[in-house]
Amino acid sequence: AGARRVFAAATPLLDAAAVSPTGAGVRPSPSRVRLSMGLLEAHGGEISAARALLESVEGHEMSPEAALTLGSIARQMGDAKAAEAALARGIGAADAARAPLATAELRLFAFELAADARDATRAKAELLAALTSALEARKVATETPVRARVERLLARVLDRLGDVAGAGRATDRAITLSSRDARQLSMTLLE
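The structure corresponding to this sequence follows.
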């Protein structure tokens, strides 16, 4: 509630900075502040407010996480076209070589959208792309929480590919990696 009040009070300043030539150097940018508030609203369950804020984020400020959140909100609201548009923004924001985990998450979301649309060919292609990116993410992940997140994602991808045994092994690895971190362990067990 406090963040909403501060954001509401700052909105006129953000709007002025966004259109002012002298506001170009403001850091964080008004778009970045809207992105952060949109993610806060989404995590708080305020999906309508989150959607409006995330849709207002400028292209260069869009992160893969924000695009995935926006796409998920649009999908929940039954707006497949907006979900696809958010996915395209996220894929444009994710550099597959530098962010294979984000790319894998976006490709898994693309699979879900294709499956919703009953496009089996595209769904299979997106799932295989998600698998490739997840395996690449596993190669480059060094921090334990990230490694656990990669294994959880890999388990979801393998499960959707019908590899129950592989998904089980990935889940076991995620549990092992998460055993010393209660937050990671709870996320692993919930997935």
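Residues 134 and 154 are 6 Å apart (CA to CA).
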